[in-house]
Design goal:
Blueprint (H helix, E strand, L loop, with lengths): L1 E12 L3 E10 L4 E7 L4 E6 L2 H11 L3 E9 L10 E8 L4 H10 L4 E5 L5 H8 L7 E6 L5 H7 L6 E10 L10 E8 L14 E12 L2 E7 L16 E5 L3 H15 L3 E4 L2 H18 L16 E5 L2 E5 L4 E4 H8 L7 H8 L12 H6 L3 H23 L4 H10 L3 H6 L2 H15 L10 H8 L9 E2 L4 E11 L2 H8 L7 E2 L15 E3 L5 E3 L7 H22 L3 H18 L2 H5 L9 H26 L1 E5 L2 E3 L1 H10 L15 H8 L3 E11 L2 E8 L12 H17 L7 E14 L2 E10 L2 E9 L10 H16 L3 H16 L15 E5 L11 H13 L7 E7 L10 E2 L1 H7 L5 H17 L6 H4 L26 H5 L27 H13 L5 E4 L61 E3 L13
Parallel strand pairs: 3-9, 10-14, 12-13, 14-17
Antiparallel strand pairs: 1-2, 1-8, 2-3, 4-6, 4-7, 5-6, 8-9, 10-11, 11-12, 15-16, 18-25, 19-26, 19-27, 20-22, 21-22, 23-24, 23-25, 25-26, 27-28, 28-29, 29-33, 29-34, 30-31, 31-32
Helix pairs in contact: 8-10, 11-13, 11-17, 15-16, 15-19, 16-17, 23-24, 23-27, 24-27
C-alpha cells in the first residue's frame, strides 16, 4: 500500500528486538502504521589491533550480537587507502549508549564513530526515507502480524507489517488533518493561573477539514446559565456546555483523539497550553477524576520539556507545530502576541477580554460570558489560519523530505541536524565513517580557535548616486566550495604530506589562508558533490514550476526549491560551527578568504579592465570590440588631426548613435557589487539618456566578463538597477530599485541597516523614514522631505491622545523580556513596565514576551518613565513628545538627509522661545537646508563631506544610536548574527500604507563581514529579500521586518518616462 510518512520511531519486542514504526496517512485518508522488523543498530570503533579488540568485545559485552571487521575511510582528510574498523552490531538501540563509554576504554581502541546516531535517523538515512515522503510498503506475509500488533500498541486505521518500504515520486499531500486548540484558565484573584489552583474553564478547537460538519468547537466547563440566550454557535461552530471541569478535561483529550489530527497546533501551546493541560489533569486525577491524557497514536505519554527558552513537545505519530515560535522565526514583528501577529499577517482582529477581568467575564451569565466564549473560539481560528494561510510549514516539510528527517525534527531543530543527516548518508555511500558530536573539552578547544574573518566589504562612496547597477554572485559561498573542491575529504594538513600520498604541488590548491585541498581532477570532494546536486535539483525544480499551471503543485515545488536553497546555504556555516560533528576552520576560513579576493578582483576588472562600455545597436561593446566592428564596415575610428576631421566613431557618439558609459564601483558587500554608471563627461545620465534596458545591457555584459574570469560554477549576475541610491556606511544604504519582471519592471524602495527594520524604534520612526525615502529617492525633493518631517514633529507636539488614542500605537517600543528581572545587570525600560504591571495587577510577565512600552512626561531617568501603553490611555498620561522627536524621529532622518547638507536645525522647525518671542507665531528655523534638490548632490555641486554634522552617523559603530542599553546592544548583535541578516524592507512606495503582508522568502542576506562572531546553531528560518541566491555565513537564516505593502508596482521604462533629477 501507499502512504505518506508523518513520524517514525521504534519499539522493542521479545528479546529486545527493535521494530521500526512508520506513522502516516494513506491516499484514502486513513491513518497508517507500518511495522518493519529486522533493522539492526550498530556503531564503529577504531583499534590499533582490530582482531584482539573484536575478541574482547564479544567476551565482555553480552549486548553485542556480532562484530565485523570492515574497511572504511576516516572522516577527515584526503586518503588513498581504507583502514580496518570494527562494526559493532548490538541487540537494541539502547545498548549503544549503555556500552559505548566502556568500549572506548578498551585496550587498543582509539576512537568511536556514529555511536550517537538516533536509531530512527539511522533507519531513515540508510533506507533513503524522510518525513512526508510517499512510500510503497510491501507486506511481509511471513510475519506473525497478530503477534506484532499485540506486542506493539497502535491507534491507527490501517496497520501493515512490511518487508520493504520503497520511496515513490509524488508531489500532492495525502488528505491531512489539522487541529488547533486554545485553553482559558480562571485567574487566581487576578494572579497568573497555576495548574495547582486554577481550573481550565474553556477549551476551543478549530478543525481542518471540518469535523462533524463544524469548523470550530468550544467546550464550556459549566452548565449553561438559566436565561442565557446569546448566540455562541453558528453554522460553522458549536458551543457545548459541560457539567464541570472534570468533564471538560476528559472531553478535550477525547475530542483530539476522535478527530485524529496529523498536526496539532495553537499559539504558544508548547510553552503553555499543553504543559498546563497535563499538569492540571494530574491534579484532578489525584482527586479521583477519570481523564485519559494519551494523545499519541500508540497511547504513549506526551513528551514535553523546556530547554532554556525553547520548548520541545512530541506526540508519537503526530506533529506538534506551535505557531508562536514559527512566526517568531519567519516574520520580524514589533510584538509577537497573537493579537499583533493576526493583525499584521492576516489583517484579522483578536477579540478582547482583559486578563485582569477574566473572572468577571466567567462568572457573568449574559453578554460578557458570550464574549468570553467567542474570544476563546477566535484564538483557535487565528492560530490555524496563521499556520495554513501563511504556509509556514511548507519549507519544513520539504526540508524533511530532502534530508531524510522527520518533520518534527526540522520544526524543532536547527540546520546542523539536517546537514549531518545528509552527510551521514553520503559518508555511508562513500565508505567513510562519521565522527561523534564533540564533547565539552573538544568544543572548548574549537571555540578557542582564531576568530573567523568574514567576507570583504568595499568601503562605500558615501552620498547620493544615480544609475547604480547591482551585480550579485549566485550562491557565492556554495559555488566557491564547488569551484575550489573545498571538502573534509580533500583537505591535506601539510605540504610535506603530498609525496606520501602520491601527489605533487600541481595536484593541490593552496587558499589565501593556507588551506591545502586536492583538486577535482584527482578526487571530487563529498561536500562539493552534495552542493552540486542540491544546486542542480533546485534549478530543475524551478523549471518544473514554470511548466505547470496547478497552483498546489506550484506551491509545493516552491517550498522544495526554497528548502534546497536553505540546505545549499547551510554548508559553509556548518564547517565553522564548533558543535558540529565535522568541523574545519581551515575550510571555513578558506571560503571567506577566496570570497574576499573575489570581490576585490571584481572591482579591479570593472574599473581597470573594462572601464567603460559602448552601447550601440542594442548591444554592449568593449572599446576594442566596437572599433573592430566599425573598421569591418569601412568606417574610421581615429580622428585625422591634420585634416581636422573627426572619426566616424566620434561622430556616432556625438549624434547619440553610440553611447559611452563610464563604470565605477561605489560599494561592494561580500557577494554583491554596486556599479555606478555615468556619461563620459562624468555627468549623470537622465532616465531618458540611460534607460533601464540600457542598464540591463551594461550590467549583463559586465557580469559576463567577470564570470569568464572565474572557475565554474561561480557566476556573477545582473540583478537590478537603482535609479537613485543613498550610501551611508557599510551595510547601511537605501535604494530605489528596479528589477526585471517578464517584459516589464517592478520597482520598490530597498533599505538595509536603517531604523525602518529595527525593533528598537517605534512605528512612527519607520513611517517617517519610509516617507522621507520616498520623497528623496523617488521624487528627488529634499524640501518636501524636510516639510514632511516638520509636520511629524508638529503633530507630535500637538498630540492629544484623548482625541486620537490610536496614535499611541505608533509610539510603542518593544523589548524582549528574556530572563528574570533580577538577572539583568542594568535597569531597562521594559523591566520598569514589567514591575509596574506586577505591582498593579499581580500578573507576572512570562519570560520570552516582547514587552510594549511608551515614554511619558515627567521627572526622573528615562528608564523610570517607561509605561504600559494601555495604562497611559486609561489614565490620560501625557507622552514625552520631545523624547520621540529628539531621539526617535530626528536622528535617523538626519542620517539620510545629511548627505544633502541638512542638519537637525533644518529638520526641527520648532525653536525655544523667550518671553518676547511668543508674538511670532511661525518662526523660521535658524538653519535652512543647504540643498534644494537631490540634483545638487548627484551632479557634484555639493560636497556631502562638507555637510553640517549632528550625530556621528557615518561611523560604522555597530548597533545604531537608539535608546539602547548595554544588554540590549549585545542582544541586537546576537540577533544580527543569528538570523536578522538582511536588515532590509521592501515597499510599494507609490501607495504607502500601514498594512503588513507576508513577505516573500526567497533571499538569504550575507552577514559574513561580522568577523567577531563564529557560526552558531539556531532554528531554521528564512531571511527576506528579492535576490535569488544570497548566502549567510552561519547555519541559519531568519526574516527581516517588512514595513508597508510588499507588492511591487509594474513599470515600463519606455512607456512611462521618469523625470530627470534636473526637473525637480
Amino acid at each position: 500500500m501507499n502512504f505518506q510518512i508523518l513520524d517514525a520511531d521504534y519499539k522493542l519486542i521479545g528479546d529486545d528486538e527493535p521494530v521500526i514504526r512508520l506513522f502516516g496517512r494513506g491516499d484514502d485518508g486513513k491513518s497508517v502504521c507500518c511495522l518493519i522488523p529486522g533493522f539492526e543498530p550498530f556503531f564503529y570503533a577504531e583499534s590499533t589491533n582490530p582482531e584482539a579488540t573484536q575478541k574482547d568485545l564479544m567476551e565482555k559485552f553480552p549486548q553485542i550480537v556480532r562484530v565485523e571487521v570492515v574497511e572504511r575511510y576516516g572522516p577527515v582528510g584526503y586518503q588513498t587507502e581504507m583502514s580496518p574498523y570494527l562494526k559493532i552490531i548490538v541487540k537494541a538501540p539502547r545498548n549503544v549508549p549503555e556500552i559505548r563509554d566502556d568500549v572506548a576504554k578498551l585496550p587498543g581502541v582509539t576512537a568511536l564513530f556514529e555511536s550517537d546516531i538516533l536509531f530512527r535517523n539511522r533507519f531513515l538515512v540508510d533506507m533513503n526515507l524522510g518525513g512526508f515522503q510517499w512510500v510503497e510498503a510491501e507486506e511481509d506475509t511471513t510475519l506473525d502480524r497478530e503477534h506484532l500488533i499485540k506486542e506493539i500498541p497502535i491507534k491507527s486505521d490501517t496497520i501493515i507489517c512490511a518487508k520493504s518500504v520503497t520511496p515513490i515520486d509524488r508531489i500532492a499531500n495525502a488528505p491531512l488533518r489539522y487541529l488547533s486548540f486554545d485553553i482559558e484558565c480562571l485567574p487566581d484573584h487576578g494572579n497568573m493561573p497555576t495548574p495547582e489552583k486554577s481550573p481550565v474553564i474553556l477549551v476551543s478547537f478549530a478543525f481542518e477539514p471540518a469535523w462533524n460538519g463544524k469548523k470550530t468547537l468550544v467546550y464550556v466547563g459549566k452548565p449553561k446559565p438559566d436565561g442565557f440566550d446569546y448566540e455562541t454557535s453558528d453554522a460553522n461552530g458549536d458551543t457545548i456546555w459541560l457539567e464541570n471541569e472534570n468533564e471538560l478535561m476528559a472531553k478535550t483529550f477525547e475530542t483530539i483523539n476522535q478527530f485524529d489530527p496529523d498536526f496539532i497546533t495553537g499559539y504558544n501551546i508548547g510553552d503553555f497550553d499543553i504543559p498546563y493541560l497535563l499538569r492540571r489533569a494530574d491534579v484532578l486525577k489525584k482527586k479521583g477524576a477519570a481523564i485519559r491524557t494519551g494523545l499519541a497514536r500508540d497511547n504513549s505519554p506526551i513528551f514535553s520539556k523546556k530547554f532554556g527558552l525553547t520548548v520541545k513537545t512530541e506526540i508519537t505519530g503526530r506533529i506538534v507545530s506551535d505557531v508562536l515560535p514559527l512566526v517568531r522565526r519567519n516574520f520580524s514583528l514589533k510584538q509577537y502576541t497573537l493579537r499583533n501577529a493576526a493583525k499584521e499577517l492576516l489583517g484579522r482582529e483578536k477579540l478582547d477580554v482583559p486578563a485582569a477581568e477574566m473572572e468577571k467575564y466567567w462568572f457573568d451569565s449574559g453578554e460578557l460570558l458570550a464574549q468570553f466564549i467567542n474570544y476563546s473560539r477566535r484564538d483557535s481560528e487565528l492560530a490555524i489560519e496563521l499556520l495554513l494561510h501563511l504556509k509556514i510549514l511548507d519549507k519544513y516539510v520539504a526540508l524533511a523530505r530532502i534530508t531524510n528527517s522527520v518533520v518534527q525534527e526540522t520544526l524543532d531543530g536547527g540546520q546542523t541536524s539536517m546537514v549531518e543527516q545528509v552527510m551521514l548518508k553520503e559518508y555511508g555511500r562513500h565508505q567513510r565513517v562519521m565522527p561523534v558530536k564533540p564533547d565539552g573539552e573538544a568544543y572548548e578547544e574549537r571555540d578557542g580557535d582564531d576568530e573567523l574573518k568574514g567576507g570583504a566589504v568595499l568601503d562605500p562612496v558615501r552620498g547620493l548616486h544615480e544609475n547604480v547597477i547591482i551585480l550579485d554572485y549566485k550562491s557565492l559561498y556554495p559555488t566557491i566550495m564547488m569551484a575550489h573542491n573545498l571538502c573534509y575529504t580533500t583537505i591535506i594538513n601539510d605540504m610535506r604530506d603530498l609525496e606520501p600520498l602520491g601527489l605533487s604541488e600541481n595536484d593541490v590548491e593552496v587558499t589565501p589562508t593556507g588551506g591545502i585541498f586536492v583538486k577535482q581532477n584527482i578526487v571530487k570532494g563529498i561536500v562539493p558533490s552534495i552542493l552540486e546536486d542540491l544546486l542542480r535539483r533546485r534549478m530543475e525544480t524551478k523549471k518544473l514550476m514554470k511548466q505547470t499551471d496547478d497552483e498546489q503543485e506550484i506551491l509545493a515545488l516552491d517550498a522544495t526549491q526554497m528548502a534546497l536553497k536553505i540546505l545549499l546555504n547551510s554548508y559553509y556555516g556548518y564547517t565553522g560551527y564548533a558543535r558540529a560533528r565535522l568541523y574545519s576552520m581551515a575550510m571555513a576560513s578558506s571560503v571567506t578568504s577566496i570570497g574576499r579576493e573575489n570581490i576585490i578582483n571584481t572591482e579591479h576588472i570593472i574599473t581597470q579592465v573594462i572601464g567603460k562600455i559602448y552601447l550601440y545597436e542594442n548591444k554592449a561593446w568593449l572599446e576594442a570590440e566596437i572599433k573592430d566592428d566599425f573598421k569591418s564596415k569601412g568606417k574610421t575610428v581615429d580622428a585625422d588631426f591634420d585634416s581636422g576631421n573627426i572619426s566616424d566613431l566620434d561622430s556616432a557618439v556625438i549624434n547619440g548613435d553610440v553611447k559611452i558609459v563610464l563604470l565605477s564601483v561605489v560599494y561592494g558587500d561580500t557577494d554583491s557589487v554596486f556599479m555606478h554608471c555615468s556619461a563620459e563627461s562624468g555627468e549623470e545620465f537622465t532616465p531618458e539618456q540611460f534607460t533601464l534596458e540600457d542598464a540591463e545591457l551594461v550590467g549583463s555584459r559586465t557580469a559576463a566578463i567577470v564570470t569568464a574570469s572565474l572557475p565554474a560554477p561561480m557566476e556573477l549576475e545582473f540583478e537590478a538597477v537603482a535609479r537613485r541610491a543613498v550610501l551611508i556606511a557599510k551595510k547601511r544604504y537605501a535604494q530605489w530599485l528596479f528589477e526585471r519582471s517578464g517584459s516589464g519592471w517592478t520597482n520598490k524602495i530597498k533599505v538595509k541597516g536603517m531604523e525602518t527594520v529595527r525593533r528598537d524604534w517605534c512605528e512612527l520612526t519607520s513611517e517617517t523614514l519610509t516617507r522621507v525615502l520616498e520623497l528623496v529617492l523617488m521624487e528627488g525633493n529634499v524640501d518636501e522631505a524636510i516639510k514632511y518631517v516638520r509636520s511629524v514633529t508638529s503633530e507630535l507636539r500637538n498630540l492629544n491622545l484623548q482625541e486620537n488614542p490610536e496614535f499611541i500605537n505608533k509610539l510603542i517600543l518593544t523589548k524582549n523580556y528574556s530572563k528574570k528581572t533580577d538577572n539583568y545587570k542594568n535597569k531597562q525600560p521594559h523591566l520598569t513596565v514589567v514591575e509596574k504591571i506586577k505591582s498593579r495587577t499581580g500578573i507576572s510577565t512570562p519570560i520570552g514576551t516582547r514587552v510594549p512600552f511608551v515614554i511619558i512626561s515627567g521627572k526622573g531617568l528615562f528608564v523610570e518613565r517607561a509605561e504600559d501603553p494601555e495604562f497611559v490611555l486609561k489614565h490620560n498620561i501625557p507622552i514625552d513628545t520631545e523624547y520621540y522627536i529628539k531621539k526617535q524621529i530626528l536622528p535617523p532622518v538626519e542620517r539620510i538627509l545629511e548627505v544633502f547638507g541638512v542638519d537637525g536645525g533644518s529638520l526641527d522647525k520648532y525653536q525655544q522661545k523667550g518671553l518676547f518671542d511668543f508674538a511670532d507665531s511661525d518662526p523660521a528655523p535658524k538653519t535652512e537646508p543647504v540643498v534644494r534638490s537631490v540634483s545638487d548632490v548627484a551632479s557634484n555641486k555639493i560636497d556631502p563631506s562638507a555637510a553640517p554634522k549632528g550625530l556621528d552617523v557615518f561611523e560604522d559603530t555597530g548597533p545604531s544610536k537608539a535608546p539602547v542599553y548595554k544588554e540590549e546592544a549585545a542582544e541586537n548583535v546576537s540577533e544580527a548574527f543569528s538570523g536578522d541578516l538582511s536588515g532590509e524592507f521592501e515597499t510599494q512606495v507609490s501607495e504607502p500604507d500601514n498594512s503588513v503582508e507576508p513577505v516573500s522568502t526567497d533571499s538569504v542576506e550575507s552577514a559574513t563581514d561580522q568577523s567577531a562572531e563564529k557560526p552558531t546553531e539556531t532554528p531554521i528560518a528564512e531571511s527576506v529579500g528579492e535576490s535569488a541566491d544570497e548566502f549567510a555565513d552561519k547555519p541559519v537564516d531568519e526574516p527581516v521586518e517588512n514595513v508597508g505593502s510588499v507588492s511591487d508596482s509594474k513599470t515600463d521604462d519606455k512607456k512611462k518616462p521618469q523625470k530627470s533629477l534636473f526637473d525637480f
